[in-house]
DUF763 domain-containing protein
Amino acid sequence: MVTGYWGVAELPLHDGHVPRWMAERMKRLLRAIVAFIVEDRGPGWLVERLADPLWFQALNNVIGMDWDSSGSTTVLTGLLRQVTETGEFGLMVAGGKGRRALETPSDLEVIGEKLGLSSSRVEYLKRVSRLAAAADSSLLQDGFQLYHHTVIVAEDGSWTIVQQGMSLEERVARRYHVSHRVVHEGVETLEPHTGVVSRLRRSAVLDLTSRASLEARRVIVDVAREKPERVLRLLREAIAVARGVVPLTSFSGGKRPSQTVIRYYRPLKPPDPRRIEPVLRRVYELQPDTIEALVSIRGVGPATIRALALIAELVYGSEASHEDPAVTDPLRYAFAVGGKDGYPYPFDAKTAEEAAAVLEEAVAKARIGDREKLEAIRKLRRLLRPPV
């Protein structure tokens, strides 16, 4: 457990930016921390730790970013990308914020060359990148629109994906972590997240990544493989049920939808059958046999998946999970050099530079065989105790 101040990862959308003088000191400190960890534990260990939302947030706070800002994700991953761009530390970062996220596939090709990854590994990384984006936009529909996507890759092929979505209505963000430790190659992804962090926890979402949605996923794929005309007819019937226009007695053996199902679907704008018809025809032609294959088809997005889930739940009685996977429990964060916005105290440039210098010296000596200072720094953690 990381020691420090108590806080909750609220991630409100903040305007503004990090001043250049501060960003340069943050970058130096982060570089020193990365170098120390890689020298001590290796790049794969660091990539795995970044899949832990608490550890990620603590690292963000240690270099001087805010404890509660959406920028904590974009700034940390952006600086990490700069620090590791040469590949010297055995890990690199693909993607980023906004349009930068669209360059993830080409970034991964460059990373593959610099880190010596096989072409098949690079193609696999491209695939999990696409699936992670689809998972948190289509399979998990929680009201947050993705605007940030990064893939952090180590030279041993291990990876972590960190992405973030925003809710403009509530002016708050939500961060998603996915790790190679829970996503197995060649296997359908169930519960891929190592953490979803948000201040808001919805009363009802559509979560097809949950194990509780396994049967619903199977029904969704089966329905998607049927002729578009039948799917559209079932969709119109399901929409009528969701609106309360007709009773459910003619479907699902008379089973009534739970209040959670109605709470999720009723406020939503129903999927427009005319808009998704071309997509359904494309799906019918390709006949996907898994949910992953389905969301990989061009044009299949949140509306199509929501339409199929609505049919699965209200017509066939295969209810998906509507429990929000986000964690809002209090977490402990570590502050070492203050925060950009003055919390818990203003950014201390002198301390940041001194800390970076100590770590840099320890790494430089370790690289020539003198690990005494590195080991001494490692032992400091024994002095740390949780706050009373």
Observations:
- The longest strand covers residues 145-154.
- Confidence is low (pLDDT under 50) at residues 1-10.
